[in-house]
Known about the structure:
Helix 3 crosses helix 9. The longest helix is centred in the last third of the chain and has 16 residues, at 282-297. This protein starts with a strand and ends with a strand. It is globular, with a radius of gyration of 20 Å. Strand 12 (241-249), helix 8 and strand 13 (271-274) form a beta-alpha-beta unit. The chain contains ten helices and 15 strands. It has helices at 41-47, 128-133, 137-148, 164-175, 187-196, 209-216, 231-239, 262-267, 282-297, 314-322, and strands at 2-6, 15-19, 29-39, 67-74, 86-89, 111-115, 120-121, 155-159, 179-184, 200-203, 222-227, 241-249, 271-274, 305-310, 329-333. It is 28% helix and 25% strand. The protein has two domains: 2-134 and 303-333, Medium-chain alcohol dehydrogenases, catalytic domain (Quinone Oxidoreductase, Chain A, domain 1, Alpha-Beta Complex), CATH 3.90.180; 137-274, NAD(P)-binding Rossmann-like Domain (Rossmann fold).
Amino acid sequence: MRVVEATEFGGPQVLVAREAPDPVAGAGQVVIEVAVADVLFLDAQLRAGWGEGFFPVTPPYVPGDGVAGQVLSAGEGVDPGWVGRRVVARTGAPNGGSDPIVAPTGGYASRAVASAEALIPVPDGLDLSQAVALLHDGPTAMELIGGAAIRPGEWVLINAAGGSLGVVLAQLALAAGARVIGAARGARKLDLVRELGAEAAVDYTEDGWPERVREVTGGRGVDVVFDGAGGPLGRGALEVTASGGRFFAYGAASGDFAEVTPDEAAGRGVRLIGIMDQRSDAAEVKRLTERALADAAAGRLSPYVGQTFPLERAADAHAAIAARTAIGKTLLTC
């Protein structure tokens, strides 16, 4: 089979395609003939050497934690009825879990091993690319929206709104009756934010962008922030969060999480919810993923796949993410 391996920590060039022995399903496992693999921003961060204190990754390793395809074989103790079925699965976390200390590995391959408990059937009529695009972002967005308890008419600011998770969050927030402001980088992403139905799209690379957000809300600020950017951009979002607001700090696209402490947020009358404060168990993650796929099959939810690359060009996919030219979801085709 074909795999892409991170030979060392470094730039996208450390991702090297090679041949590897075909995997064999162990007890409780299946082998998936991969059609499409998910590419996470986290994959690029780990490849560059970020997050060693959180993720046990040591080169050489095969990146990736999400695949879609057809079950090729099943190991001991696995229902043989899975063979031949279209599925999505996380490859790096046991039992499809979302524990952040588990290394997201094994997905950049033409054949991947997954726990049978991690398998999620893809509904009829749903494209595998759409399904894998929701494997991580679907349950994450639903967790965040559920925790925010948005009331109709509330202002919601989404930082990194042009990314794959931001796109899903915008759709769910709008469905909850929110008035959405999307903050992103560059004309293409801002156009996408507007197409999704946001009332305003703000370029957060421009000076004074928080003031623009405040103007849109009539001076009162936003009720909910979903911060997928982190760093100084997250700090800017806190400045426009109204008293009584909810601030979800889950992203570090700028290199680190938002420059906000719980005490500082509380002093502003804002409730800060960090990445470790809202974690579902494996069963809940699986349930939310199934719900996201069902919504997509029914036309109620639509991830935006902005670019796809052949598996052998994984380095190009990472380069596009690093250059901030990728929009929405990035996928690898096998």
